[in-house]
Write a structure and sequence with these properties.
13% of the residues lie in helices and 32% in strands. By secondary structure, it is an alpha+beta fold. The N and C termini lie far apart (27 Å). The chain has a domain at 13-46 and 57-77. A hairpin with a 5-residue loop joins β1 (9-15) and β2 (21-26). Strands 3-1-2-4 form a four-stranded antiparallel beta sheet.
Length: 79
């Protein structure tokens, strides 16, 4: 099931060593194999209509359609 962009929800993962680096995966998509607990940690769920700083909904939609995930940088490294 693919939600309209306005309603898309993403699971966001933080890189443990570089917490400003984030990987967003739409909830209706599988989590990429490179995301695992040793290097990444779950940071929460994001809705496109209330994105965190650094998250660009249009870029996220395009990236998840082509690659299955969206990498972005959160200023200050906090969720």
């Amino acid at each position: 099931m693919h939600w309209p962009a306005a309603y898309a929800a993403y699971n966001v993962f933080r890189r443990r060593q570089y917490p400003a680096l984030r990987c967003a995966v739409r909830q209706d998509r599988p989590v990429p194999g490179f995301i695992h607990g040793v290097i990444w940690e779950y940071g929460g769920t994001v809705m496109e209509e209330r994105p965190p700083e650094g998250f660009q909904p249009g870029d996220a939609q395009a990236a998840t359609e082509s690659a299955g995930y969206y990498l972005f940088r959160a200023p200050g490294g906090r969720a």
